[in-house]
Design brief:
218 residues, alpha+beta, three-stranded mixed β-sheet, two-stranded antiparallel sheet, 11% strand, PyrdxlP-dep_Trfase_small, EC 2.6.1.2
Length: 218
């Protein structure tokens, strides 16, 4: 819950770094639309509670976006940006100083960012092609996600929730009762017991503990 994250940041005096690169890859736009951290932060100003209204101007937020993800997928062109919200002027000055002495993105990366934040508008010459290509990429990513979700759930002992967006699925391995019994006999948690058994014997010295957590890139 974004509100809870911002409340925690306010309470603990934390800076929030919001990686919002998958805001276009939303596969349930009506039920779960993309909502930016900045919008939720600013909405605190509308709260009836004074202690909540303070959050809108108090929590420091850095929102990040780039052309590597979404429907752009231009990983090799190295273009991105971040927006500073409620950052103190002294810190902001240091950020600008660091940026000024660093090499800028390539021309291709800068063009990609310009297209990301200012895409063709309806009525412009390139809009029809832009819409066709971006919708095609979006539907391809969505269909891959749905196909992998279905395939995971066909596997015995595997349960996987459908992806709400982005490029990842996180299947859960449900091990049989016998494995859980063996783990208890060994005095270990089920994942601590299972992972060393599953990995190749040649790698037994590489890891002490391995959690059963699998991310699949589509």
């Amino acid at each position: 819950n974004i509100r809870d994250v911002l409340r925690l940041a306010h309470e603990k005096r934390l800076v929030v770094l919001a990686d919002e690169v998958y805001q276009v890859n939303i596969y349930q736009p009506l039920e779960r639309p993309f909502v930016s951290f900045k919008k939720v932060l600013r909405d605190f100003a509308k709260s009836e509670k004074e202690e909540e209204r303070v959050i809108a101007e108090d929590v420091e937020l850095v929102s990040c976006h780039n052309i590597s993800k979404g429907v752009s997928g231009e990983c090799g062109r190295r273009g991105g940006y971040f927006e500073l919200c409620n950052i103190s002027p002294e810190v902001e000055a240091q950020v600008y100083k660091l940026a000024s002495v660093s090499l800028c993105s390539s021309v291709q990366g800068q063009i990609g960012i310009d297209l990301l934040v200012r895409p063709p508008k309806e009525g412009e010459e390139s809009y029809a092609l832009f819409k066709e290509e971006t919708e095609g990429i979006y539907q391809t990513l969505k269909s891959r996600s749905e196909k992998m979700h279905a395939k995971f759930n066909e596997l015995p002992g595997v349960v996987c929730n459908e992806a709400q967006g982005a490029l990842y699925l996180f299947p859960e391995l449900r091990l049989p009762a016998g494995a859980e019994k063996k783990a208890k006999e060994a005095g270990k948690k089920i994942d601590e017991y299972y992972c060393p058994q599953a990995r190749p014997k040649s790698n037994t010295n590489r890891f002490k503990v391995c959690n059963v957590f699998v991310g699949v890139l589509l």
